[in-house]
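Appendix B. Raw example, untouched.
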Amino acid sequence: MSTANLPPTYQGPAPGSPEHVRAVIAELRRLYPDAKCTLNYENPLQLLIAVQLSAQCTDERVNEVTAQLFRKYRTVEDFANANPEELEQDIKPTGFYRNKARNLRLTCQRLITDYGGEVPRSMEALLTLPGVARKTANVVLGNAFGIVEGIVVDTHVKRLARRLGWTQSEDPEQIERDLMRIVPREDWLDLSHLLIFHGRALCRARDPRCEECPLVPLCPSAFQANGETVATKKRSRRTAARQSS
């Protein structure tokens, strides 16, 4: 979309209204018809481990690590009994590897002692596992078991929910509650995938590509009080920077 065609002020539905939410989700579905969890896994245990490794790490990097990791550690017992230093080295590229290795071992030990070696299918049980908060639990429940109890709030979902005017909070759990209140339950699982895909493609943290975004007519954050769009301001700053260099 050309910035020349952007309206000067936000004229869309009230942010967070049913009309607004429906329109945003419909456009995201059109843009990303294949949006899904991008972590590679073959069973609930592998997904649980992959999500824990994804903290402060890209899914692409996690998939590179787990391609080898899941060939070496095939069962819950393999992780529970892993040599700590060796496991640390196996997952080192994902960052924060000492803490992650510790949590993986403790999680799998807890799975064995409390859950018969199986990944539990409830939010309450998953939250008893070391290193597991609602984000991880929601990913595992929704993608491994088709059980939707909430909405995954990662950094992309947090950023886009605020930009769309669906929440004012910075707290992931409050953001989840705000989204659950306005988004139809049947869209909870897909919404996180859609927002994550859009966050990666266009609505980036440091340099959102508003000038290319089809959601601009539905995004109040793409506009400023003086009527100038974010995209136009960014282009003006780049031009000024080039002229002064």
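End of appendix B.
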